[in-house]
Amino acid sequence: MTGPDLLAASGKPRGQSAPVISERLARSIAWSSGVLHIEEIALYGERWEIAGRDREGNEKAVDISADDGRILN
């Protein structure tokens, strides 16, 4: 999912205090980007920071925009 699909899936309009991209949706985006096992997830301002491991067991970090679901790194 990308762009408008992410916004529709989140169910929250822009402008609310809660992030548009929920933790659940951020996890899904991380899994789609190759994070097999999520070890830590935290919301910092307007981005989700996710740390985990890929299929080979290597550490992987992903930052995701809480506004639109873009992968920032």
Mean pLDDT: 85
Q: What are the secondary-structure elements, in order, as H or E?
A: HHEEE
- Helix % is 10-25%
Q: What value does the Rg take, in angstroms?
A: 12 Å
- Uncertain residue ranges: 1-15
Count of β-strands: 3
- What structural class do the secondary elements suggest? alpha+beta
The outline comes out as: elongated
Q: Which sequence of strands runs across the widest sheet?
A: 1-2-3
What does this 3D model show about the protein?
By secondary structure, the protein is of the alpha+beta class. It is 23% helix and 30% strand. The protein has helices spanning 4-10, 23-32; strands at residues 37-44, 47-53, 59-65. It has a three-stranded antiparallel beta sheet with strand order 1-2-3, with helices on one face. Strand 2 and strand 3 (59-65) form a beta hairpin. The longest helix is centred in the middle third of the chain and has 10 residues, at 23-32. It is elongated, with a radius of gyration of 12 Å. The model is unreliable at 1-15 (pLDDT under 50).
Descriptive key words:
alpha+beta; disordered N terminus; 23% helix; 73 residues; three-stranded antiparallel β-sheet; 2 helices; elongated
How is the secondary structure organized here?
Blueprint lengths: L3 H7 L12 H10 L4 E8 L2 E7 L5 E7 L8
Antiparallel strand pairs: 1-2, 2-3
In brief:
This protein is α+β, with helices and mostly antiparallel strands. The protein has helices at 4-10, 23-32; strands spanning 37-44, 47-53, 59-65.
